[in-house]
Amino acid sequence: MAEESARAVRQILLAGAVLAAVLLLSIWGLRPPAPKPENAPATSFSARRAQAILNRLVGDGVPHPIGSAANDAVRARLLAELERLGYKPEVQAGFSCDIYGSCGTVKNVLARLDGLESGSAVLLAAHYDSVPAGPGASDDGAGTATALEIARVLKNIPQPRHAIVLLIDDGEEAGLLGALVFVDKHRWAKEVRAAVNVDTRGTSGPSLMYETGSANEWIVRLYANGAARPATSSIFYTVYKQIPNDTDFTVFKAAGYQGANFAYIGDVAQYHTPLDNFANVNPSSLQHDGENALPLLLALANADLSNPLQKEAVFFDVFEHWTIWWSASWTLTVAISTAIMLLLEIGWLMLKKRLAASAYLWGLLGWLVIMMVTGASGWVLQMVLRKAGATPVNWIAHPVPVQVAFWSLGLAVVSSLGLVFGRWAGSSGLWAGVWTWWAVLAVVIAWQMPGISYWFLDAAAVAAILGLPFALGSNDAARGAGWVAILPMAAAAIAGFGPLLLFYDALGCDALVLISLLAGLLLTPLAPVCAESRTLRGLARIGLPSVAVMATILAAFSAIVVPAYSAKAPERVNFEYWQDGDSGKSQWMVHPDSGRLQEPIRVATKFRYVDKGPFPWGGNPVFLADAPSLDNLAAPTFTILESTLVGDKRAYRSLLRSERGAPKASVLFPPGAGIESVRMEGEPLPPEPERERKSLNGWAYFSCPSMPAKGVEITFTLPAGTPVEVYALDETYGLPLEGLFLVKARPFTATPSQDGDVTVVSRRVQLLP
Questions:
Q1: Which of 36, 535, 635, 762 shows its CA 20 to 30 Å from the CA of 232?
Q2: 202 near 264, Cβ under 8 Å?
Q3: How far apart, in whole angstroms, are the C-alpha atoms of residue 139 and residue 65?
Q4: What is the homologous superfamily of the domain 47-319 according to CATH?
Q5: pLDDT score recorded for residue 1
Q6: Is there a contact between 717 and 656 (Cβ–Cβ < 8 Å)?
Q7: What pLDDT is attached to residue 6?
């Protein structure tokens, strides 16, 4: 018994040391490289040189959305930078519309480095416009500075095989409009075969290759061979395809370009806010961007672009030092083979009476109960933290305690239930049960989503390989459970800890239950080791579960007591002044991300909470207060220039115009209006996605965020014989002077975001049959 107890202690300590080491290496691996100085060799990328460019571009901290004078100024600086580097830049102006009903005039900046061969080109892309609320130093000033520093490097290295086109486009924030204009209308677009896009969704963190084209086996091979600090995973690629987020790379993929998309996502609380400024740009992240984009761009520019194989890969990095990849087409075969091998080993152990059938069944049940309890406990903990005010918004100021709490929760459940089920299953029964489930998941996910399969397949394959000599040997099952359990557990942690550490930055507090569930899943291979604790006595027997439970409680308590907001991670709170151009009624509106007013704002005036705003398409709660009516805010006009009956349809030609010179104007048609064949300035608007219509309660929305003084012409058809009442509205950025008291009431722990504070004037227009 003493020998068994000593072995159990050694195994638990070894398993804990292995997990701790892998976790620390995973955290260390997510650190971007140190920035290279300005005097770095001319052939290498230097973040300090890129920073200097960035400071010249957006160091003034002024937001520069599409169509603004500030955007014109940034574009002029861009042109000057390219000319200084020896390029002959050009400006492409054009009008385009996205699938969400947003149209506008953009002015792209382009330059070209000719290749040794003609006919094919590679694109390096970033965007220079910002959202109205922030200066966009990281999104995407950092990408622009990265592209310009790469452009400098290209002048100092041998000429590539294929031409390289540099596209710094406009209007990305307004709906990927600049990318659309380039792809549809520029003469160089037809030459492009592959694109490298550099964008961000935060201000720090590693630069992730999170999206590729359809031929990603080819891309991953080039990336793996060239990246000094690879940071990537086919999990990112697979998950991103399920999320309704778009970047310019979405447009490039639709045009048939191959390539890759890079971004860093740390400190996402600063994204699309005034805190996305030059001071908050992380130079190490900038360095990583360049060290990722440059070698892949050069590899593509010197590769055979004629016909890349349309094959996908399963891939991931190991501590940002190595990239492991294989063809996705092999995955299901390997997963099935692994499952068969494991089941044969388990069957052999049962045949030799080294594993009882009842122990195996208890092991299968134990894994299932662990996952169910982890998910349920995670949900309960999330509800407790939400009720206690620890997670009022999706990204909070101090996220480490909540992450520790949900990781520790997974460990607490696995270690506790591993000990409980070890009573009936033993370590060998739990080992067999755990890896049976992992093998089954590997097969199912390899079949449905091969990009995620490596999380299960790698560790299951290690378990099957190590289990073979164990099963065929004559040693007692319990004695062999240590190394047979710990090494596959290490493989699971190496493959899974890195991506899981990024889940919070990617998805926020909404993903906390998922984080606990995945942490529990990755830790289930620890259960057979924990089962050995049943041979211990007293507190030693419950040592690991007790430590994990205490860590969960202490981390959850810390999450509750630390403030949810700070000056560097404030709550997003937008103010809006709205005036009804028909009645003159005016209101202040507040849109806090948390759904609650911070005290200084609450006492600024008499706000009342309503479940739905004043617009029929708005379904979100809002805080309202009466506001003074302003005579100097002329309502927008929506004028019918021509109306023609065509069969059972009536075709309209109209003019949407902001009479007060607002930069943005929109028109909305009610549900069931039957609007079709919409064009703005002659550009067709595709039907809106169903999710967009649902978010607007069925209303059809058409907008121009770069409204010219003359207005924009919109043509459309409606069913004949039915009157339709539409809304026209325009929007300026910032509040009128009468709203200065609200701006002053916003505490330092709150910030505007996206469009920021706005002044909106609306009117209703009857379209008679």
A1: 36
A2: yes
A3: 12
A4: Zn peptidases (3.40.630.10)
A5: 56
A6: no
A7: 77
